[in-house]
Fold this sequence. Notes:
Helix 1 runs antiparallel to helix 2. The protein has one domain. The chain is globular and about 40 Å long. By secondary structure, the chain is mainly alpha-helical. Helix content is about 80%, strand content about 0%.
Amino acid sequence: MDQLIQVFGALLVLAAFAALQYERMRPASLLYLTLSLAGSIVLAFLAWADSLWGFLMLEVVWGGVSAVGLVTALRGSTADRPRSS
């Protein structure tokens, strides 16, 4: 079962990356950042469970960068909305 979850997490990250490379998504899009973050969370959890420290470090950094980008994108999208009076 772990292998199936691992493949799912990898597919999330790889789908986002491929869409970015083929210009189907922008690097700051909510979908790209969400897929990237979700995949890295899945993979980080599995790396932690199996004591794969190098892989865990990669996924924590990947997820952290994605999370910062997602927060920035969400703040930007709310800042662009007109305020109600």
